[in-house]
## 1
Amino acid sequence: MLIAKDLWFRYHDDWIVQGTSLSLEPGDVVGLLGPSGCGKSTIARLLAGLLTPTTGEITVPPHDPGPYPVQLVLQHPERAMNPHWKIRDVLAESGAGEAAIAAVDPNLVNPGWLDRFPHEISGGELQRVNLARALLTDPAYLIADEITASVDALTQAQIWRLLLDQAGSNHIGVLAISHDRDLLTAIATRTIELG
Ligand SMILES: Nc1ncnc2c1ncn2[C@@H]1O[C@H](COP(=O)(O)OP(=O)(O)OP(=O)(O)O)[C@@H](O)[C@H]1O
């Protein structure tokens, strides 16, 4: 289980995260909703181990050295990858070997993209690559922070279908962060509301 207990965090003087607690079980899909600036992305970074809470405790599943068991996928995939790397090298950053990359679901990553650079595929396609890279680390939990906020409704539905299929078959717990209450109602079994 991924457990956050009474998290407090501030970047400077103001407390951004004030006593947040939440838990996520393997296979759970939980929404996180709240107004802009209330600290959703900060909570995401705390859970993914990219920030350390000032006080409070985060329990993650035991894991070997290597990729962290809580992976974070962000809204802008182009900011999360080296623009000079081909897609196969972007995916290899997960630590996955050639065979695992070749075995990625072609609905998620079209094999024809592997020898292209990030700017040579669309934003929605690049987000699928971003998602595939996180999934290739074999995460126990995935935090999806506004991952479909920049794509059209059809692509949004397609990306969420792929993510939920993969999460379901690999028993991955998902925390879906969004401003879109309707989206969270459609995909999550429960939603935590902040602010
Ligand atoms: N690196 C940082 N340094 C200082 N302040 C920051 C930093 N990152 C975020 N903040 C501040 O922390 C607060 C919470 O930001 P955060 O991105 O967590 O909110 P959010 O709920 O995800 O917002 P949004 O829905 O607009 O993405 C904001 O006031 C923001 O300005």
## 2
Amino acid sequence: MNRKTGFRFLIRIMERWKNTARSFGEVSNFRDTSIEEMESALAKYKGGEVMLSKEYWNEGIAVIYLNHPEKKNAMSGKMIVDLRKCVAELESFKDGKAVILTSKGDNFCSGGDLDFVRASGTPQGGFFMSTIMHNTLKRFRNLPLTSVSLVHGPTLGGGAELSVYSDFLLAADNVKLGFVHGKMGIMTPWGGTTR
Ligand SMILES: CCC(=O)SCCNC(=O)CCNC(=O)[C@H](O)C(C)(C)COP(=O)(O)OP(=O)(O)OC[C@H]1O[C@@H](n2cnc3c(N)ncnc32)[C@H](O)[C@@H]1OP(=O)(O)O
């Protein structure tokens, strides 16, 4: 079989399986789910919180804290929804100048909460998490505020992705910044590698 005949043969097979390939994992079936439905599905996976601190609000500075120290600030479903609420509130911070993204405890963020990821580990769960985080972080990036990530300690997986969404990243000497996704056989689901 020459190359031209080979290509034709391949294309015929691919055309036959195209629709199956597109619906693989049924991800396309979730596109009609509303953001609110995705949020309420994610919010069921509790643990930790993301807080918007107004301690420097009058000076035009907002501080977002990740707070889940018992799991090294891994992001649960609830925290993903919290972060979204913080960003929504910052969108109407009219006198705001800057936002600092940081954490409580001895590291910035160890990525997605693996217990949450396992529990919601279906194509649907992955699609919801990824869609909400992409949307939230795009809105974070588009805030008319100067953004700074203050990071320290292990900052891994989704934590590394989160850290690079700010305009500036200030890292402590003890930071361990790792896009460990490749080793785990996954892509960067929060879009951090497009920054
Ligand atoms: C968006 C896609 C992703 O982000 S996938 C997730 C990628 N992140 C990871 O794989 C990081 C996994 N965690 C680690 O490597 C280590 O826990 C790091 C962060 C280096 C901290 O090590 P170390 O100081 O020794 O603490 P430790 O391992 O004893 O952890 C304390 C407790 O926290 C937990 N923890 C940590 N990270 C997560 C996580 N991402 N999801 C869920 N739980 C996490 C550990 O399991 C440990 O819990 P426990 O005290 O043993 O019950």
